[in-house]
């Protein structure tokens, strides 16, 4: 019980996949060590645990996301489906093992605040990249959009104030979760504390993906024309 009394020390860590602030993260829990971990999270009332990727040398990734449990459904075979949602980002300071699962001492990450002309520039960038993200998502095929929506839910609306959340706009994390990116790239962006740099990274990724999509479409059109 005492291990979860402080959510910066000995935080239970689920080593599995990428998670992002404000984004739903449903999990299928079938390993006994994680059953124990989830049960302790529920019994202590914190209903929170960290999510990290596996790392070859360090054991777990340097950055992760705190998740909050919304619901737990247990099946006859003992496995569970845990409905969780991302709360906040953190950096791992050190990590340990306890009863078969990882725990870590962490520090939370918050975005640097901008003011004056830099804030005005950020506001413009925020609007521009949001519109670019919406355009990319609406350009996807119907079945691709349906798959994304069924797993991640609707794309959040653009916030009037880009710095209202210490972790940044919800829509930006949603788009990062659904973009076809390698986890290494996602992890690097997760650890950024500059909203401007994250937005610029999203813009670059969207430009590259859109160019590839257009090139493939041009190739298909060319083949159809030749046939």
Write the layout of secondary structure elements.
Layout: E1 11-15, E2 27-29, H1 32-44, E3 48-52, E4 54-55, E5 59-60, E6 63-74, E7 80-98, E8 101-108, H2 116-138, H3 142-152, H4 170-178, H5 183-190, H6 195-226
Parallel strand pairs: 1-3
Antiparallel strand pairs: 1-8, 2-7, 3-6, 4-5, 6-7, 7-8
Pfam families: LON_substr_bdg
Domain Lon N-terminal: 1-210
Protein name: LON peptidase N-terminal domain and RING finger protein 2-like isoform X1
How many runs of DSSP E, i.e. beta strands?
A: 8
Query: How much of the sequence is in beta strands?
Result: 15-25%
Distance between the termini: 69 Å
The residue fraction in helices comes out at 40-55%
In order across it, which strands form the biggest sheet?
A: 1-3-6-7-8
Please state the CA-atom Rg, rounded to the nearest Å. 20 Å
Order of helices and strands: EEHEEEEEEHHHHH
Uncertain runs with pLDDT below 50, 5 residues or more? 1-5
* Mean pLDDT score: 90
Major sheet details: 5 strands, mixed, barrel
Structural class: alpha+beta
Number of helices: 6
The shape, in one word, is globular
Write a short abstract of this structure.
Helices cover 42% and strands 25% of the residues.
Folded structure, characterized:
The protein has 227 residues and is of the alpha+beta class. It is built from six helices and eight strands. A five-stranded mixed barrel has the order 1-3-6-7-8. A hairpin with a 3-residue loop joins strand 4 and strand 5. GO terms for molecular function: ubiquitin protein ligase activity.
